[in-house]
Amino acid sequence: MLKLIFRNAFRHKLRTCLTILGITIAILAFGILRTLVNAWYSGVEASSSARLITRNAISLVFSLPLAYKEKIRGIPGVKNVSYAIWFNGTYISEKNFIPNFAIDPKTFLELYPEYTLPEDQKAAFFRDRMAAIAGRKVAERFSWKIGDTIPLKGTNFPGTWNFILRGIYHGAEKSTDETQLFFHWDYLNESLKKTAPNRADQVGIYIIGITNPNLAPEVSEAVDKTFKNSLAETMTETEKAFQLSFVSMTEAIVTVIQLVSFMVIIIIIAVVANTMVMTARERIGEYAIMKTLGFGGWHLAILIFGESLFITMVGCTLGILLTFPSAKIFGAKIGAYFPVFHVSANTIFLDIGAALLVSLIAAIFPTWHAVKIRVAEGLRRIG
Amino acid sequence: MGIPVSYSLRNLSTRRLTTTLTTSGMALVAFVFATTLMLAEGLRKTLVNTGSYDNGIVLRRASNSEIQSGIDRYQASVVETQPEIAIGENGQRLVAKEMVVIINLQKRGSEKPSNVTIRGISNQSLLLRQQIKLVKGRMPKMGSSEIAVGESIARRFKGCDIGEKLYFGMRNWTIVGIFSAGNTGFSSEIWGDTDQFMQAFRRPVYSSITFKLRDYSEFHKLKERIGNDPRLTLEAKREVKYYADQSELMTKFLSILGLSLTAIFSIGAMIGATITMYAAVANRTSEIGTLRALGFQRMSILVAFLMESMLMSFIGGSLGLFFASFMQFLTISTLNWQTFSELAFSFTLTMEIAYKSIIFSLIMGFIGGVLPAYRASKMNIVEALRAR
């Protein structure tokens, strides 16, 4: 039976090869699109439930006073507090987008153990006020070496700022963002004190480490209550929720991509179904002969389904194999927008599931046709 | 003498299922092709229409959007007195010193907070933007806690209807009007008095200064003067260019995504067409032989089969376009990465997109059909007639 399926599949070499090619491309596209959607949520994936983010209640554009730090630290359930400012400087030109933040080095690296730095680099980063650390990916992209000077052109904070690269961090996990650059908040603040005193001693967000993730709602509420009715009211949420709020604003695009990835599947169904219908049409006579010989409808069904399954699975395997190198190329091309771009196991399972679905749907119609055919009528077609 | 077109047409209707499958594949591709173009076009239109051709805008140097910019009152007064700026009917200079901040509001239905742009306006703001029309109520009075909201805000956000109050900047603001700004970014904004907002947000700087030029061609003079003035840290841009720059990233992203998707899809559809056409040729070998024996040229056979494939793709393309045209009723809202605020835009179908989609489908049909058609025309007459 298997042999028959295999031989049948390659009776029409060109058509089968074209169909397989079509499936390969579609599965490849499907895989890449799924990966793109995953990349969208990578920030959410990487966030920890033991961290809270406090920002100005009006919106992220507004800052919070530095004085809040000690007040937050005094709230029960808070382990440690760090702060950061979205600096948003551009490196050479706007094309080279690097997320860059002014941070409080010691507390920040305590809160983010997933950014791993060699001890000597860490120490050097702490010591030097002009120091910066950058992620592995971004350092590779611009081939930065330790000790290089990195000029950033300020957008939110006018002027050109020079930093000295003192460390290159690696992500402890696959989902860790390795494209960012961090430098001393003090360095920024000193300069602001001179040039724009009303913008000094301000931070963008507070990052709060809590003793126990289950305390998140209570701690968030306590923080927000502390600053209620002040000039800068706060809004505290878990890091996951904070990241999700960014994603949800661009949800429309994600939805479009998801819709399209299903459309890809529909198109392959059309192509494979087309092939199977033709195959069945050509072999009506054969089916009739097989029926005369006493093969039941089941046998025919298995034959047709088997062939459909065989063709789609070959295409699917090829597609999955090709997904990995193309995801690499793709990731390199759009690495600036999506720090994390890797194919997850989940995507592979979805690929296989989609291929199974396609092969089944495509085979239904011809099978029904073949099983129903009356022997005499089928035989008439044989000359 | 060619083979009549009706031959190709009737061939399509003989194998209905296969034709339907292939055509629907083509239709899907044309649909995707058209909708992605429509999306990019809609976005571009929304952002470019936001600017007027003879308006200029001044921002702090190196800031890419109004949000990042800051202009103090002293610098603003220097800009205000530039001679190239037009004078209005009542003798006032047509300059709007505005501040822009972003706040979070909850969307209707999903309760999710999203970023909304708040624009503090001055008396001239409306004069500078001809596309703004009041839909309901009136514009806010200067010096009061009144605001007007853009149409798409009123529709999509909670508590943003006329007569309702919004709370931000530690104050309640009454919505006294809803304005429509056509297909522009202003529809996603909330407007009120600049000085009131500056107080409320404790942000004593303007974000941008928009002005109307006395004469369209004098812009470069003003740009140079503002750029070289040692007192100023500002730069001037034409408003149209400024808004086009704002959408660059998004448009680029959408078109890259759209084009790569279309490329992948079209390969699938072309393969489908090729398979179908090969089968058509194989099934009709004796027919082709007969035609050749009757004296039809190889060329006419080739044309007849190509016709068939192109007809199929034409039907598919038209279907795809037909369904794509319904997408115009949809509005998509997303975050503009460059300004950090919510932006709503809709799919826009233009004639250009329509004919591009049809041409694109025809090309697909041609590529899909050319090999099988060539094969059909190359057949040996005697052998073809022998085939059953």
Automatic annotation (TrEMBL), chain A:
Could you tell me where this protein is found in the cell?
Cell membrane
Q: Where is the ABC3 transporter permease C-terminal domain?
A: 260-373
Q: What is this protein called?
A: ABC transporter permease component
* Protein species of origin: Candidatus Jettenia caeni
Swiss-Prot/TrEMBL keywords? Cell membrane, Membrane, Transmembrane, Transmembrane helix
Q: What is its main location?
A: membrane
Is the keyword Transmembrane helix assigned to this protein?
yes
Q: Transport as a keyword?
A: no
Domain (MacB-like periplasmic core): residue spans on this chain: 16-222
Q: In terms of domain of life, where is this protein from?
A: Bacteria
UniProtKB/TrEMBL annotation, chain B:
Carries keyword S-adenosyl-L-methionine?
no
**Where does this polypeptide localize?**
Cell membrane
The record places domain ABC3 transporter permease C-terminal at 261-381
Q: Please report a single Pfam family linked to this protein.
A: MacB_PCD
Q: Single GO molecular-function term?
A: transmembrane transporter activity
InterPro entries given for it?
Answer: ABC3_permease_C (IPR003838), MacB_PCD (IPR025857), Macrolide_Exporter_MacB (IPR050250)
Keyword Cell membrane present in the record's keywords: the answer is: yes
Q: How does it sit in the membrane?
A: Multi-pass membrane protein
Task: Kindly list the GO CC terms recorded for this protein.
Answer: plasma membrane
What UniProt keywords apply to this chain's record, in alphabetical order?
A: Cell membrane, Membrane, Transmembrane, Transmembrane helix
Name the record gives this protein:
ABC transporter permease component
Q: Taxonomic lineage per UniProt?
A: Bacteria, Pseudomonadati, Planctomycetota, Candidatus Brocadiia, Candidatus Brocadiales
